[in-house]
From TrEMBL:
It holds the Pfam family Cytochrome_CBB3. Residues 1-21 form the signal peptide. Residues 145-169 are annotated as: Disordered. PROSITE patterns: CYTC (PS51007). Residues 55-140 form the Cytochrome c domain. It comes from Phyllobacterium zundukense. InterPro entries: C-typ_cyt_methanol_metab-rel, Cyt_c-like_dom, Cyt_c-like_dom_sf. This is C-type cytochrome, methanol metabolism-related. One of its GO terms (molecular function) is heme binding. The keyword Transmembrane does not apply. It comes from the Bacteria. Residues 150-163 have a biased composition (Basic and acidic residues). Keywords: Heme, Iron, Metal-binding, Signal. SUPFAM superfamilies: Cytochrome c.
């Protein structure tokens, strides 16, 4: 199944309409698949233990700062160009996030035109969508302060394999 087909499926789920509010309890780790964590709903989440972040959260920080910060501001705090994702993710579930990042979004209202470009074809983004999500989720629920995480877990073999497969290496 292609990335765009998966994205279309997620967009359909997102369009079903739901009220969503993320918090520390909802973001709690329920499962660990070799260093990749999920919550009780099966959505990607983060793990921070004594100031050490999991690899995927650290990777999300790195990807955010290479691809997203120009519009969304340092640490997802927002700018005059785009909203504060550290706030937005409190009300956006995983499917909505994936759909918006992959397909883009337009909010065109009088004097307040905002356009999020589609990143569904950008491997530097779509290969790391879960990483971006867990980083921003950790920021949104208040478990990760601003700035570069001081310590992180080592990169697991599963992350190396996924990266090589997605990036074509």
């Amino acid at each position: 199944m292609t990335f765009l087909a998966v994205t279309a499926g997620l967009a359909l789920l997102a369009s079903q309409g739901s009220t969503y509010a993320d918090d520390k309890a909802a973001a709690a780790v329920a499962a660990d698949d070799n260093g990749k964590y999920t919550d009780k709903e099966g959505s990607p989440t983060f793990k921070i233990n004594d100031g050490t972040v999991d690899w995927y959260t650290y990777s999300g920080y790195r990807r955010f700062n290479s691809e997203c910060h120009v519009c969304h501001g340092a640490d997802g705090a927002g700018s005059s160009f785009a909203p504060a994702l550290a706030e937005s993710l409190k009300n956006i579930n995983y499917a909505d996030f994936m759909s918006i990042v992959a397909a883009g979004r337009k909010n065109l209202s009088a004097g307040n035109e905002k356009v999020m470009p589609a990143f569904g074809e950008n491997k530097n983004v779509y290969c790391y969508m879960d990483d971006l999500y867990v980083y921003l989720r950790a920021r949104a629920v208040g478990d990760l302060p601003r700035g570069r995480p001081a310590k992180h877990e080592d990169k697991p073999q599963a992350a190396k394999d996924a990266e090589a497969s997605c990036m074509g290496g």
